[in-house]
Amino acid sequence: QHYFIQSNLRFSMAGGNIETELNKVGLAGMIIFYLVIFVSGLFANWILKKKKDPDQEGGKVQSDGMMLAGRDINYVVGCFTMTATWVGGGYINGTTESIIKNGLVWTQAPVGYSISLLLGGAFYATKMRKWRFTTMLDPLQLKYGKPLGALFYIPAFTGEILWSTSILAALGTSLRVICGIGDTPSIVISAAIAMTYTLFGGLYSVAFTDIIQLVCIFVGLIFSIPFMTTSDAVTIPLATHDVVLYPNKTGGFFGKLKSEDGGVWFDYAIMLMFGGIPWQAYFQRVLSARDDNVARTLSFVGGFGCFCAAIPSIIIGLIAMNTDWSATAYPAAELTKDNYKLAVPLCLLYLTHPAVAFIGLGAVSAAVMSSTDSSILGVSTMFTRNVFVNVFYPKASDVVTVWFLRGIVVINTIIAMLIAIYVKTVYGLYLICSDLVFILLFPHLTLVVHAQRFTNKYGMVVGFTLALILRLLAGEPVLKYNAIVKFPYYKEPSTDSDGNPVYGVQKFPFRVLLMLINMIVSLTVSSGAKQFFARFPQYKHWDCLGATDPEPDFFNHEELDGGKSKNKTAVEVISRQPSDMTAVNDG
Predict the structure, then answer these.
(1) pLDDT tens, position by position, 250-279
(2) How far apart are CA 171 and CA 165, in angstroms?
(3) CA proximity to 85, closest of 402, 335, 298
(4) What is the Cα Rg of the chain in Å?
(5) Of the residues 133, 201, 457, 586, which has the maximum number of CB atoms within 10 A of its CB?
(6) Nearest 10 degrees: CA dihedral of 151, 156, 161, 162?
(7) Which residues pair with 495 in a beta bridge?
(8) Parallel, antiparallel or unpaired: strands 9-12 and 17-20
(9) Given phi > 0 = left and psi -120 to 50 = alpha, else beta, which region is 289?
(10) 405-445, pLDDT tens digit by residue?
């Protein structure tokens, strides 16, 4: 059954990397799948035009339709697109890699991201949707003013872009293994297709294609598992103990959590659960829902779907651990550590029939595109709305906004492609940006949603700045520099047996600590500044950030979104907000 593999594979023993010559059958299968996705995206664009506002001049697409699908996402489409947004190529391949490399106990993403969606639905979705925001940065700009609120775009942008980049890089490697085409063509073609249907259909196209992609993910992976288990190279029943793929690995399938690593485990667990909330890709689905009940429900269902989508990847990881790779066409005696990240496509390639492998390939490709288009559209929407319109061009017409959004989609896609092609530490950079989203963005989003009267611009500036400085001084092995600020249980830098430097590691859950410092300092400084200027009014002329200004009651649903004739939205309030950061006065 592996006749086409054996004739097309070469193996580089020096680097442990698999190289393949062009596989025409595999390439044809990929082209057919991509055409289906592309046509589906164009069909969604046609639906968008059918739903256009009849009062819109020339029948042109509105920005609200591009960014939020006209706020018309129902339960079914919403649940599909929410789940597909999180279940990306990095999620599928990364879960299997983590199972093989570190065991189940360290595979935290499925549970962490599922809980983050549940928390988002319980505590954020309803309020955000009732206020009819366009992006998750809208409440930050309402509270802190347009220029200061736009600062939060920096961690949001880097996180979303590098998320897309890491997914595209994973796709390039996977398609190189199965189809035999190079990383660069894979990345360029996949990103270009996702970009094209996103350009014209916006969230309509993204949401519609998510349905097809998510079905392919579940059906493709679940369908392939029985074929893997029937392979002669796989030991049945699958063993969970005494499974060793490389020296010094302990704990088998379940892995092992040492007491000295408890702080690191806790740190990542909390970061995944709460740091998974402040992402535009998530809030774009919430804000596009028909009402707050739909927004809350799709968050809950998305959390359940996110967890279920990880089960096939976990099983494939267990299968890979119970495979005698020397008995397959794999050109090595064992699965090398460098290729753990390729475990899913390799299991499809060597343990199943070619037809099954191509179905699985469609699943992997679907997983990648379903997250890439969502992330690119989300980060482009934030820049268009919160930077271009709110800061630089408040009087931009709807037509100008739509075309600017399309231009930013193109630019961000190119940026993601270039990073994926030329930067080799993309996943490490993505982890750093996830740190920044959790430490810098999450505390302030939480404050403006749930405690907006207890925070102001003084607290935001001090808390944000202090947390950023401490994070930079905490060191980062990915960027190859050691810590200046050392938290308890810090593991000092050393050298390995070959004389290469081993950078220091923070064993204390310092990310959680920095997030709490950011939030507590913001509340404390905000309260102090407000009380100071209230007690000493003679110094009010020094109050450059408006500590005693009236609070913008932007969560008053009765006033702003309660069915009044004007039906003013949060975005309309922002557009009227003066650029000098004075408070909103909607009277």
Answers:
(1) 467 888 898 999 999 999 999 999 999 999
(2) 10
(3) 298
(4) 25
(5) 201
(6) 110
(7) 501
(8) antiparallel
(9) beta
(10) 999 999 999 999 999 888 876 667 777 888 999 999 999 99
